[in-house]
Amino acid sequence: MVSRVLAAALAGAAALLRRFGMPLVVAALVTLAGLSLGRVYSGGLLEQLVAGAAVAPVLISVLLARAPGWLIAPVSMLALAGYAVAAVHLSARSAGVAGELPELLSDAARNAVPRLFTALIPVEPQPDTVLAPVVLAWLAALAGAELAGRAGRTATALIPPTLAYAGSLIAVGPNATVALWQPLLFAFLAAVGLAVSSVVSGAGLLARLGPSQRTALRLRAVSGLGAGLVAVLAVAAIAAPLVAYQVGRVPTDPRQYVEPPTLDVLDQNPLLRISAWAAEPERHLLDVEILRADTPPAPPTPEPAVETTDPSVVVVPDDDPDGEPVEESEPDPGAGAYDTRLRLAVLSDWDGVTWHVDAEYRNAGRVLPAMPPPPGHAETNSAHLPPPLTIEERITVRDLEGRLMPAIPAPRRIEGVRVAYHPQTGSLLHNGPLTPGLQYTVTSVSPSIDVNLLPAADVPSGPEVARYLSVGGQVPDDLSQLAQQIATGNGTPYLRAVALEAFLAEHYAYAADAPSGHAYPNLRFFLFEDPRAGGQRGTSEQFAAAYAALGRLMGLPTRVVVGFQTPEGGGAITAGDGFAWPEVLFAGIGWVAFNPMPDPGIPPRPLEDEYLPKPPPPTSPPESVEPPDDPTWTPPPSSPSIAALAPAGPSAAVVAGGVGGGLVTLLLLFFVTVVLLRALRRRSRLRGSPRRQIIGAWAEVLDSLALAGAAPPPHLSAAEIADHAAEVARTAPVSRHRIRPAIPPLHDLAAKVNAVGFAGDTTAPPDEIAALAAKAQAIEYERALRARRSWWRRLLWRVDPRPLRRGGPRRRSGRQGQSRRSGRRS
Question: Exposure pattern of 560-574 as b/e (b: 16+ CB <10 Å)?
Answer without folding.
Answer: bbbbbbbeeebeebb
